[in-house]
C-alpha cells in the first residue's frame, strides 16, 4: 500500500465514537457530602464551598452510599436551628431548600420523614412588575385627587387661607410619590417602592380623615366624593414587593495557614 493511501485513510471509528460519547466521570471523583459539609462549617468557608455543597445535594447518591446516613444528614440540614441551612449559593438557592429536594428525591420511606411545615407553601405575594390595571388605577386616582384638591382650593380661598401653596404642594407630592412607586416597580427598585408607598398610605389616611370630617359636616355623601377609596386602592396595588431573604454572608477568603 502506498504512503498516499495511508495518509488519506479515515481515522478509526473508535476515535470518532469517543469524541461523540465522552468518558463518564466516576462517582469517586465527587467528594462525599460529609466532607463538603465540613468545608462549609469551617471558619475559612467561602461561597464556592456552599455552591459545591448545593451541587452535591442535587446529585444522585453514590451506589455504595448508605441511604439512611444520607437521609439523616439531610434531615439535619432541614432543622431550623442549623445555620448552614440558611446559607445561600451563588444562584440564590438556600442549602435548606436543596436538602429538601434531595430528601424528596430519595423516595419512600425517607421522603416521608420530611417535616410537615416544609411542605407548606407560602401564599403568593405581590407579583413583580406593573400591570396595565395598576397604571390605569394610579392615573385615575391622581386625576380624582387633583379634582378634589381643586375643590379644596376654593374652600380654602373662602376662609382666606393660602390655597395655592397648600393644594399645589399637596398635589405635587401626590404625583411625585405615585410616579416614584410606579418607576420603582418597573425598575424593581424596592427603595423607590417603599418611598412611594409610604406617601400613598399617608395620603389614604389623610383622605379618610377628610371624608369623616365631611360626613359630620354635610352627610354621608362626603364618603363618595372624597377620593379616599381610590387612594387606598392605589396604595394596596402599589405596595412594595416582599423583601428578599437575607442569608449569612460567608467570609471573603480562607485564612492562610
Walkthrough of the structure:
The chain is mostly helical and 257 residues long. The protein contains eleven helices and no strands. The chain has helices at 3-8, 13-20, 33-41, 47-57, 67-78, 95-105, 132-158, 163-187, 190-218, 221-225, 228-237. The chain is elongated.
Features:
single chain, 0% strand, 2 domains, elongated, mainly alpha, 257 residues
Order of helices and strands: HHHHHHHHHHH
Low-confidence spans: 13-27, 245-257
How many domains in all? 2
> Could you estimate the helical fraction of the residues in percent?
55-70%
Number of helices: 11
Shape: elongated
Largest sheet: none
Return the structural class.
Answer: mainly alpha
Give me the Rg, rounded: 32 Å
Task: Return the average pLDDT rounded to an integer.
Answer: 78
> What is the terminal-to-terminal distance?
64 Å
Q: In what range is the share of β-strand residues?
A: under 5%
Q: Count of DSSP E strands?
A: 0
Provide the fold topology.
Layout lengths: L2 H6 L4 H8 L12 H9 L5 H11 L9 H12 L16 H11 L26 H27 L4 H25 L2 H29 L2 H5 L2 H10 L20
Helix pairs in contact: 3-4, 4-6, 5-6, 7-8, 7-11, 8-9, 9-11
Question: What is the structure about, briefly put?
Answer:
The longest helix is centred in the last third of the chain and has 29 residues, at 190-218.
Amino acid at each position: 500500500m502506498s504512503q498516499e493511501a495511508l495518509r488519506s485513510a479515515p481515522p478509526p471509528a473508535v476515535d470518532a465514537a469517543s469524541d461523540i460519547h465522552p468518558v463518564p466521570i466516576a462517582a469517586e471523583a465527587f467528594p462525599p457530602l460529609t466532607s463538603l459539609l465540613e468545608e462549609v462549617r469551617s471558619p475559612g468557608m467561602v461561597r464556592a464551598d456552599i455552591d459545591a455543597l448545593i451541587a452535591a445535594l442535587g446529585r444522585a447518591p453514590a451506589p455504595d452510599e448508605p441511604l439512611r446516613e444520607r437521609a439523616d444528614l439531610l434531615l439535619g440540614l432541614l432543622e431550623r436551628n442549623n445555620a448552614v441551612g440558611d446559607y445561600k449559593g451563588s444562584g440564590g438557592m438556600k442549602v435548606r431548600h436543596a436538602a429538601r429536594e434531595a430528601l424528596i428525591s430519595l423516595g419512600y420511606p425517607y421522603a416521608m420523614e420530611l417535616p410537615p411545615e416544609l411542605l407548606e407553601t407560602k401564599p403568593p405575594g405581590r407579583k413583580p412588575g406593573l400591570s396595565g390595571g395598576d397604571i390605569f388605577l394610579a392615573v385615575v386616582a391622581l386625576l380624582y385627587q387633583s379634582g378634589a384638591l381643586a375643590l379644596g382650593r376654593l374652600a380654602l380661598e373662602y376662609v382666606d387661607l393660602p390655597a395655592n401653596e397648600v393644594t399645589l404642594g399637596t398635589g405635587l407630592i401626590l404625583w411625585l410619590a405615585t410616579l416614584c412607586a410606579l418607576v420603582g416597580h418597573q425598575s424593581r427598585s424596592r427603595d423607590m417602592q417603599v418611598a412611594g408607598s409610604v406617601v400613598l398610605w399617608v395620603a389614604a389616611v389623610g383622605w379618610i380623615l377628610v371624608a369623616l370630617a365631611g360626613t359630620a359636616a354635610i352627610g354621608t355623601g362626603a364618603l363618595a366624593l372624597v377620593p379616599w377609596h381610590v387612594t387606598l386602592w392605589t396604595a394596596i396595588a402599589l405596595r412594595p414587593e416582599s423583601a428578599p431573604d437575607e442569608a449569612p454572608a460567608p467570609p471573603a477568603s480562607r485564612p492562610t495557614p
